[in-house]
Amino acid sequence: MMIGLLVVASASVPISIRLTNRPFYFMFRHSVFLILALFISAVILQISLHYWFKYSSILLAISFLFLVFVLVMGKSVNGASRWISLGVFNFQPAEVAKLSLFVFMAGYLVRKQQEVQETFFGGFMKPMIVFASLAILLLGQPDFGTIIVMLVTLFGMLFIAGAKISQFIALMVSGVIAIIALIVAKPYRMQRITSFLDPWQDPFGSGYQLTQSLMAFGRGAWFGQGLGNSVQKLEYLPEAHTDFVLAVLAEELGFVGVVLVLMLIFVLVMKAIFIGEQAFKNNQFFSGYLAFGIGIWFAFQTLVNVGAVVGIIPTKGLTLPLISYGGSSLIVMSIAISILLRIDYECRFLLQNGYSADKKINEKE
């Protein structure tokens, strides 16, 4: 978070001056989001996993309502209607939808684990229908990147739950066909694919953002130009403080800085997987599925963001976890980390007293 604050402060100076005539406008906003995220996380940390399980369906229903609301009365930015204006900042329901889907999925896998392992429609297809409903609403925004992250995380959670490989193969083939159809259906998606394959073919048009990002990486070399010395952030590189903040980090801190940040995220992901493994060993299955889901989510979103910035995959408009500017993303991911801490807490300490969130869940059922 602190690295993110520093890089956002540096990357956002030119756009802050142009829009507000204040060089650190976005840095101050990001600081407020960071403090708010930590405060909300401290509150979330007090909530037992039992309540997340109990109200998972309600949380998902609220996410559906938010997504419908954003389509009806959402704020449009750069041609995408993904935000609800709350006056002081714009709220992005898609971020809440990600977390709520994973919480719901973890509860579903506890309730229907045997069905998931044995039947196709009864256990495997029901969560896919829920996902498809969310995907339709997200396509209306449009937010293709969030759909991909949700789908991959969902597949990961189902795989951990013991779903059959044949089911995955069938759905993966269907998914690839659907993704190709969605790309072909919209000219701007097709343009992203072609510009990603050869951005230098049209460096001042469809390939402009990627070529500017690659220039930033090239200038950064091993140790970077120094904090604050990026040239590409001087409004050559679009979205320098949001989706493409890693390019500015690469230019200023170099290959070493990028590797350091990615290693920190990698350690966070590995810790999430370790916590999930410990939860399974303690028969806290809801906690285990949720921890693995959060770990897969963070890992894949990082992969997509980094891949888009360096030209490995087409641009998807996803933030770099805990680094990029964006209040909704920062707050929701902080909540996810608080849930991980709560899972770890219940595994380490409460089990010593014979307490288990899953035990409570089983008693209620």
Automatic annotation (TrEMBL):
<dbReference type="InterPro" id="IPR013437">
    <property type="entry name" value="FtsW"/>
</dbReference>
<comment type="similarity">
    <text>Belongs to the SEDS family. FtsW subfamily.</text>
</comment>
<feature type="transmembrane region" description="Helical">
    <location>
        <begin position="120"/>
        <end position="138"/>
    </location>
</feature>
<dbReference type="GO" id="GO:0032153">
    <property type="term" value="C:cell division site"/>
</dbReference>
<dbReference type="GO" id="GO:0009252">
    <property type="term" value="P:peptidoglycan biosynthetic process"/>
</dbReference>
<keyword id="KW-1003">Cell membrane</keyword>
<feature type="transmembrane region" description="Helical">
    <location>
        <begin position="144"/>
        <end position="161"/>
    </location>
</feature>
<dbReference type="GO" id="GO:0008360">
    <property type="term" value="P:regulation of cell shape"/>
</dbReference>
<dbReference type="GO" id="GO:0071555">
    <property type="term" value="P:cell wall organization"/>
</dbReference>
<keyword id="KW-0131">Cell cycle</keyword>
<keyword id="KW-0997">Cell inner membrane</keyword>
<feature type="transmembrane region" description="Helical">
    <location>
        <begin position="168"/>
        <end position="188"/>
    </location>
</feature>
<feature type="transmembrane region" description="Helical">
    <location>
        <begin position="28"/>
        <end position="51"/>
    </location>
</feature>
<dbReference type="GO" id="GO:0015648">
    <property type="term" value="F:lipid-linked peptidoglycan transporter activity"/>
</dbReference>
<feature type="transmembrane region" description="Helical">
    <location>
        <begin position="286"/>
        <end position="310"/>
    </location>
</feature>
<feature type="transmembrane region" description="Helical">
    <location>
        <begin position="322"/>
        <end position="341"/>
    </location>
</feature>
<dbReference type="Pfam" id="PF01098">
    <property type="entry name" value="FTSW_RODA_SPOVE"/>
</dbReference>
<keyword id="KW-1133">Transmembrane helix</keyword>
<comment type="pathway">
    <text>Cell wall biogenesis; peptidoglycan biosynthesis.</text>
</comment>
<dbReference type="InterPro" id="IPR001182">
    <property type="entry name" value="FtsW/RodA"/>
</dbReference>
<keyword id="KW-0812">Transmembrane</keyword>
<dbReference type="InterPro" id="IPR018365">
    <property type="entry name" value="Cell_cycle_FtsW-rel_CS"/>
</dbReference>
<keyword id="KW-0472">Membrane</keyword>
<dbReference type="GO" id="GO:0008955">
    <property type="term" value="F:peptidoglycan glycosyltransferase activity"/>
</dbReference>
<keyword id="KW-0573">Peptidoglycan synthesis</keyword>
<feature type="transmembrane region" description="Helical">
    <location>
        <begin position="253"/>
        <end position="274"/>
    </location>
</feature>
<keyword id="KW-0808">Transferase</keyword>
<comment type="function">
    <text>Peptidoglycan polymerase that is essential for cell division.</text>
</comment>
<feature type="transmembrane region" description="Helical">
    <location>
        <begin position="58"/>
        <end position="77"/>
    </location>
</feature>
<keyword id="KW-0132">Cell division</keyword>
<keyword id="KW-0133">Cell shape</keyword>
<protein>
    <recommendedName>
        <fullName>Probable peptidoglycan glycosyltransferase FtsW</fullName>
        <ecNumber>2.4.99.28</ecNumber>
    </recommendedName>
</protein>
<keyword id="KW-0328">Glycosyltransferase</keyword>
<keyword id="KW-0961">Cell wall biogenesis/degradation</keyword>
<dbReference type="GO" id="GO:0005886">
    <property type="term" value="C:plasma membrane"/>
</dbReference>
<dbReference type="GO" id="GO:0043093">
    <property type="term" value="P:FtsZ-dependent cytokinesis"/>
</dbReference>
